[in-house]
Structures are given as structure tokens and as C-alpha cells.
TrEMBL record:
Residue ranges annotated for the Plant heme peroxidase family profile domain, each copy included: 69-265
Signal peptide as annotated in the record: none
Biological role stated in the UniProt entry: Destroys radicals which are normally produced within the cells and which are toxic to biological systems.
Entry EC number(s): 1.11.1.-
Database matches in Gene3D superfamilies: 1.10.520.10, Cellobiose dehydrogenase, cytochrome domain (2.60.40.1210), Peroxidase, domain 2 (1.10.420.10)
Species of provenance: Chytriomyces confervae
GO BP term, pick one: cellular response to oxidative stress
Family recorded in the similarity comment: Belongs to the peroxidase family. Cytochrome c peroxidase subfamily.
Protein name: Peroxidase
Gene Ontology MF annotations: heme binding; metal ion binding; peroxidase activity
Entry-linked PANTHER family: CATALASE-PEROXIDASE (PTHR31356:SF66), THYLAKOID LUMENAL 29 KDA PROTEIN, CHLOROPLASTIC-RELATED (PTHR31356)
Length: 704
């Protein structure tokens, strides 16, 4: 591929990673290397059952736009890129894999036992060393990937995240594993049977195979070493994952390493006008770059050691999404970045933040004067979960830096992030319609900061608005550092009246009209298919989270992603295994999936429920997606909720799964209004009280 094609592939994959697919990519690349010797034979393997067909089909969609890369390279590169994009180390990645034609078209003997979640020490060691030639050190480092992502009840039958930062690679997994006594066993019921897993007080889980790392002296010593030193973990992980992805095929690969870093290297201070202050040593600098594909990429550097926050919003910025980078005051831990959940753009697993963070590699891509450097991508047009408008970046962006680390606060925490305090802000940059302007600092810094003018709005007013927002979102601290203010009741310290230009920005109707006017075109992920017109009819809305696409466009994307492919014999069916011998008797059942047809069936059945032609079965655990969608719509949900049920494959087991709190479900199903929430929660409580197949009746604590 040409350099441009690699750039384009990185950009495409980064959209998917931003959409929450990173952990899947990492797992898929590992499973591929482990079962297919890097030839992507895993695609054909029967033991891929815990991979979602939709996810696998998505890879085909990406591939369609990149004819010059093999599927095996694509899968492998996506995994390596995701590690780096989610805060991990860069991986030495090389291209040159050939695609396997069958499950056996691989240098690895696939009849040897594959790893299982129930494996103990011996099986784990045997799998990695016999099949893959990896050492104890490699094994423990690789298992650290479980810091990322989730177990999905509808995929593997296990449920929940391992860490509190499932989209940010850290060594938390090892820190948690140091204390296995903090975990108790729990049983998860699903269509795949009863699975035993471990869970801690915060709802974080471990598989039995993770726990095996605590049961062997050598393994446990490594767990402790990585828990104490994230840099060692990163270095060992990069080495082991890089070699894993070249299992049995290293000799045939290109000599050139393809960078897994998304960020543009920054070695010096950006040119004047982009830093505050503009002369002398900057407090912080922000550069923006329009990639011409609907994204704006911001790169932020600061000499502060607390946090850097980016916020964006149409108009008043209230309730918008914020991304935060921070480093501890001692600098220990290096650069870390995380996202912040605010109200409008919800960040939930599998959906997306308005922001997608791209960490710069701490040592190589950071200007010498900077303590925190990172990049973040923002879609120009996004769709919020509230159905309100996204923004086209003609609104406001703030960049705020502070000398203080964020503090833990469960309310808005996502990916381990916390509460930021307005009082600690050292400087804010606001980018309005008139361009970027530095405007304000906190009490101590304010006097030395100049006040600019933003897009014709008096800077003072704009600053007041920004501060008001930060007071709401970040909970103001008034009584000195280290001391929390009493809870404020609603009204933030804001000017009583906002300037008129800003007032109407926060009006939903106005936003909607702007939205309609501003949308330039859809974000297209993957190939465009002309099959849109023949795509199945749908009375459900599209529930894309960060992309804006008309219904027919979305349908065409869906159709190209999940429509007929020619793998199987029957026309229109994705019949992957029909012609292949089964690898193991137990899991050797062939299956075929036709997503489009399934969705039509789903909608038809839902309609039958809604029309009163069929009624719900008493046994919740047998409910399919249509039954769940009907139940949700009857109890506070709407069409958007039903579409979520459809797209996320929510079946009865999900409603009952103890690892999903009712609050999680309310959130995932986009039940927003207070009244609706009460209705839904009441119905869910009754449903869970009634239980189904012995499911645990008590809610575990939320993990964030
Ligand atoms: C003994 C070896 C391993 C076993 C038995 C195992 C098992 C599992 C299981 C059961 C899941 C949950 C799947 C789901 O429900 O979605 C999972 C997820 C995951 N695994 Fe492993 N795993 C192993 C090793 C690894 C390795 C070596 C890596 C990468 C280096 C890895 C990366 C991941 C990731 C990132 C996820 C999260 C996927 C997501 O969120 O969709 N695993 N693994």
C-alpha cells in the first residue's frame, strides 16, 4: 500500500476504534494469530463462536475499501493500532501476511487445544508455549490486554469489564490481580449456559483463566512486577504482542515497520498564535488539523502537570463531552488520557464519545517543554444520544489546563476519570466562530492572561459562560485546594442573563434547524453499497451514535455490511462453515446468519407484539430481541430504545444479567426522560424480582 493508503487506513480504523471497537480488534488479532498463524485462518475456525458475526462482517466492510491489503494484515494491523490508540505502547508491526483459505491453511496445528476461559495454570502455559512458543513473561504481559474491553454475555456468556478503564490501556489489571482475595465468585446465566466468574466490589470481573495468574509463583511475581511498573508492562506487552502477530510467519514479512502511532509527531512549539502565551514559554499550545474527512484533529501540549481538558459544544457547551489528559504532579505514570462523561454525549461501551483520543507517544512525540501531550479527534458532525444536535465545531471549544490532578468522582467518571475543578484552571482557550483565542486563567493566572474577543462576542461574557459550564460539569471547588465545596444546588455561578447570541444556541429547536442546515453529508464507514434501495424496510430509527446518515444511507451501509456475501453455498447467506470439516465435535455446528433478514424478522415480530397479535412469554430468559424490544417500549422506552435492542442484540438474558445494573440498561436503551425512567426502573425491578432461571436478584454496585 502507498503511504496515503496507510494514512487513510489508519484514519478509517481510528473511527472504528473511537466507536468502541478497539478491544475487539485487539482480541481478534490475537485470536487470529493464535489460531491461524497470522493468515487470518481464524475467520474460518469454528472456535470463533464468541466473536460477533456483525463485528466480523464489519472487517469485510473496511476491507472493501482497501483492496491492496490482505485481510490477515488488516486484522493484525487493526489490533496493533488499537493498542497504541488506546493509550498503550507502539507496536513494531510489519505487513506481508497471506490470507488463509481454510481453517487448516495455517502453519499452526489447530487440533491442539485452544485456550479456554476456564483454563488453569498448566493449560494456560501449555497453550502459549506449545502452540505459540511464548514465555511466561510474554503470557503474563499479553493477558494484560484484558485491562481493555468487556466480556459480553451474548458473546462468551461472561459479563463485565476487567478494569475501570476498558478503553484505555493501563496496568490496573495487574494491580487488581495482586489481591485475588478482593474477588468473590458469581454465576452468570445466559444462552451459553452457566459460567463462573469472579467479581469485586466495584463490579469488575476476572475470568478463571485470569485468576490462574495468581496461582503460580512465576506468574504472580510478574503480576506484581507489572502492577508496580506500567512502563515495564508496556515494553513487554509491545514485544510480546508484536511477536504474537508474527507467529510462524515472521520470515515472510516485509522488513519495514509500519507505525502504529496515529499522532503527528511534534518536536517543537507550534507556530505563534496557537500557544498561550504566544511569546516565551507556553503554558499550553493547541493545534488543529482538518483531515478533510469530517474530522478535526487537535493536538494539545502543556507544561502543566495536572490536567488538560477539551470540551466542545454548540452554543453554551453545557452538558457536552470532555476529554481529559493528565499526568501526576510527580510525572509518575507519564501521560494518561481519559474521557469524561457528561450528559449530552454519552460515552458507553460500544458507543462513542464525541471525542476520540489519540495519545502521543510520551517520549518521542512530545516537545521537550511539555508535560502532557495528546491528540484528540472530533467529528465535525455528530449525533448525540439525546437526539439533539451534534455540532459542526462552529460552536465553542475550550481547552483548560490545571496544575492539579483530577479527583475521583463516580458521578461522571468514565475510563477512570474523575472530577475537575474550575478553581484549578490555569488557562482556557476558546475557539469560537471567529477563530481560536486564549481568554482566561484562574484567579492567580488571570491577571497575566490577556482577554481576547471571540467571534464578535465580548470575551468577558464568553468567559463567564465557559466558567459557568465548567462549574456545572466540573463541580466548582470554592474553599481552597484539597477541600470540597458543599454541594451546589443547581444554579452555577453564571451571569444571570446570557448574551442573546448564546441563549438561542441552547434551544433545542434552534439547534435542530442548524443541524439540518449544517449537515454536509454522512460519515460513511466502510463501503457504500448501491443495495440501499433494496435494503429491508424499517420502521425503527437509525441509532448511530456519532455518525449522521440518512435512513437510506444507513440502510445501504448496513446492507453492505451485513448483506449477502459469497462465502456460503446458499445465495444471500453467510454460511461460513457449511463446507468445512469441524475442528472439534462439541462446537462443530455450522451456522449461518443473514443479518438483514434477521432484522426484518425482528421488526415484523415486534410489530406483531405491538399490534397485540402475540403476547410475551412468561419466561424472560427465553425472550428474543423482539420480545425485549416490546417489553422496553411498553415500559418507558421508545423506538430509539427498540432500535438499540435490535443493534445491541439484547435478549432476555441481558435484561436479567446481574452484571448490568438497571441504570446501565436505562442508559444503554436511551431512556432519558425522568418519567420514562421511573416506569422502566419499576418494570425492571419487578422483572428481576420475579427472576428467571435462578438469576441473582440483587443489583451489584455500579462499577463506575
Ligand atoms: C488464555 C487466553 C485467553 C482467554 C481464555 C481469553 C478469553 C476471553 C474471553 C472469554 C473474552 C470475552 C469475550 C466476550 O464476551 O466478548 C475475552 C475478551 C478479550 N480478550 Fe481475551 N482471552 C485470552 C487471552 C487474550 C490475549 C492474549 C489477548 C490480547 C493480547 C486478549 C484480548 C482480549 C480483549 C481485548 C478482550 C475484550 C474484547 C471486547 O471487549 O470485545 N485475550 N477474552
Amino acid at each position: 500500500m502507498t503511504i496515503d493508503q496507510w494514512t487513510s487506513l489508519r484514519s478509517t480504523l481510528s473511527e472504528y476504534i473511537g466507536a468502541g471497537y478497539g478491544p475487539f480488534f485487539i482480541r481478534q488479532a490475537y485470536a487470529d494469530a493464535a489460531t491461524g498463524g497470522g493468515g487470518h485462518a481464524q475467520r474460518w475456525a469454528i472456535d470463533r463462536k464468541s466473536f460477533n458475526v456483525r463485528d466480523l462482517a464489519m472487517i469485510d466492510t473496511i476491507k472493501a475499501n482497501f483492496p491492496d491489503i490482505s485481510l490477515a494484515d488488516l486484522v493484525s494491523f487493526a489490533g496493533a493500532l488499537s493498542v497504541t490508540a488506546m493509550g498503550g505502547p507502539t507496536i513494531n508491526w510489519r505487513s506481508g501476511r497471506n490470507d488463509a483459505k481454510t481453517a487448516f491453511d495455517a502453519p499452526i496445528n489447530l487440533t491442539t487445544a485452544s485456550a479456554k476461559a476456564t483454563d488453569g495454570v498448566d493449560e494456560l502455559r501449555a497453550f502459549f508455549s506449545d502452540r505459540l512458543g511464548l514465555s511466561d513473561r510474554d503470557i503474563v504481559a499479553l493477558m494484560g490486554a484484558h485491562n481493555l474491553g468487556n466480556c459480553h454475555i451474548w458473546k462468551s456468556g461472561y459479563a463485565g469489564p476487567w478494569s475501570s478503564t476498558p478503553f484505555n490501556l493501563t496496568n490496573e489489571y495487574f494491580q487488581l490481580l495482586q489481591y485475588p482475595e478482593n474477588y468473590t465468585t458469581e454465576y452468570v446465566l445466559s444462552a451459553s449456559g452457566t459460567k463462573m466468574q469472579f467479581i469485586d466490589n466495584s463490579g469488575r470481573m476476572m475470568l478463571p483463566v485470569d485468576m490462574a495468574l495468581t496461582k503460580d509463583e512465576t506468574f504472580f511475581a510478574l503480576v506484581q512486577e507489572y502492577a508496580a511498573n506500567q512502563a515495564t508492562f508496556f515494553a513487554d506487552f509491545a514485544s510480546a504482542y508484536g511477536r504474537l502477530l508474527e507467529t510462524s510467519i515472521a520470515a515472510g514479512l516485509s522488513k519495514n515497520v509500519v507505525s502504529t502511532s496515529l499522532a503527528v509527531a511534534q518536536t517543537s512549539k507550534p507556530s505563534d498564535g496557537k500557544c498561550y502565551p504566544n511569546t516565551g514559554n507556553p503554558i499550553f499550545c493547541v493545534e488543529q488539523f482538518d483531515d478533510g474527512k469530517g474530522n478535526v484533529i487537535f493536538t494539545v501540549h502543556t507544561n502543566r502537570q495536572g490536567w488538560v481538558g477539551l470540551g466542545v459544544g454548540s452554543g453554551s457547551m453545557i452538558k457536552n463531552d470532555v476529554i481529559v489528559g493528565y499526568a501526576s504532579q510527580s510525572g509518575i505514570g507519564g501521560v494518561q488520557t481519559s474521557r469524561f462523561r457528561t450528559v449530552q454525549h454519552k460515552v458507553i461501551p460500544n458507543t462513542k464519545s464525541a471525542w476520540q483520543q489519540i495519545p502521543l507517544h510520551p517520549s518521542s512525540n512530545k516537545p521537550s517543554w511539555s508535560n502532557i501531550s495528546f491528540s484528540a479527534v472530533h467529528r465535525k458532525v455528530i449525533e448525540s444520544t439525546t437526539g439533539l444536535v451534534g455540532n459542526n465545531l462552529n460552536g465553542f471549544l475550550t481547552f483548560a489546563v490545571s496544575d492539579f490532578a483530577p479527583e475521583k468522582d463516580a458521578t461522571y467518571a468514565v475510563d477512570g476519570v474523575t472530577t475537575l475543578y474550575q478553581h484549578d484552571i490555569s488557562a482556557i482557550l476558546v475557539r469560537g466562530t471567529g477563530g481560536a483565542t486564549m481568554v482566561v486563567g484562574d484567579e492567580s493566572a488571570a491577571t497575566s492572561l490577556s482577554v481576547g474577543v471571540i467571534g464578535g462576542i465580548a470575551a468577558g461574557a464568553a468567559v463567564a459562560v465557559i466558567l459557568a459550564v465548567l462549574a456545572i460539569v466540573f463541580r466548582k471547588r470554592m474553599f481552597g485546594r484539597g477541600e470540597k465545596a458543599p454541594a451546589t444546588s443547581g444554579a452555577p455561578e453564571a451571569p444571570a442573563a446570557l448574551p442573546e447570541t448564546l441563549q438561542h444556541h441552547s434551544d433545542a429547536t434552534w439547534l435542530k434547524s442548524q443541524y439540518a442546515a449544517e449537515v454536509r453529508g454522512p460519515l460513511t464507514i466502510g463501503s457504500q453499497s448501491s443495495a440501499g434501495d433494496s435494503a429491508p424496510p424499517s420502521f425503527l430509527p437509525d441509532v448511530t451514535y456519532h455518525q449522521v446518515a440518512s435512513k437510506s444511507e444507513k440502510q445501504s451501509q448496513l446492507f453492505s455490511a451485513f448483506g449477502p456475501v459469497t462465502l456460503g453455498s446458499a445465495a444471500g447467506e453467510r454460511n461460513v462453515h457449511s463446507n468445512l470439516p469441524s475442528i472439534s465435535g462439541a462446537s462443530g455446528t455450522a451456522y449461518s446468519v443473514n443479518e438483514a433478514a434477521e432484522n426484518v424478522a425482528f421488526e415484523q415480530k415486534l410489530k406483531q407484539y405491538l399490534d397485540g397479535n402475540i403476547t410475551l412469554n412468561q419466561d424472560v430468559s427465553t425472550w428474543d430481541r423482539a420480545a425485549v424490544a416490546y417489553f422496553v417500549m411498553k415500559n418507558g422506552g421508545n423506538l430509539v430504545s427498540a432500535a438499540r435492542v435490535r443493534d445491541e442484540n439484547f435478549v432476555g438474558a441481558v435484561l436479567l444479567a446481574p452484571t448490568f445494573t438497571i441504570t446501565d440498561l436505562t442508559f444503554a436503551l436511551a431512556i432519558e426522560k425522568l418519567g420514562d425512567k421511573v416506569i422502566f426502573e419499576t418494570a425492571m425491578l419487578a422483572l428481576r424480582e420475579r427472576g428467571g432461571g435462578g438469576v441473582r436478584k440483587h443489583e451489584p454496585p455500579a462499577y463506575i
